[in-house]
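User: structure tokens for DNA-binding transcriptional MerR regulator, please.
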Amino acid sequence: MLIGELAERAATTTRTLRYYEANGLVRAERSPNGYRQYNEAELRVVHEIRARLAVGFNLDDIRPFVACLRAGNTSGDVCPDSVIVLRRKLAEVDARIDRLGTVRRQLQTQLTQAIARRSPH
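Assistant: Done. Predicted tokens:
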């Protein structure tokens, strides 16, 4: 399929696909006239990339998932390198949640104190 069809089927843009290709995540063959041609497997790869990006992964984080798919697996998250990335990302999210909990408690304390200090009108 040509780049426009892949973009349409993956609900993305041709520019995005070229970006993924430039970063080594998506593979295209070149026809004699220079057009990019993609096989059906690239659609699955693009869906994997977009799903991972949607939850905060960066392109380097995504590489093991793409490699896992290219190795013939039905899912990009079943390979050991993918599991390592998932564990690391989960630890990062947990740390952010802890930090946000601390910030929330501080804000709640400040709000409670501010309300208590207000003079009645």
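User: Anything notable?

Assistant: Helices lie at 3-9, 14-22, 40-54, 59-70, 80-117.
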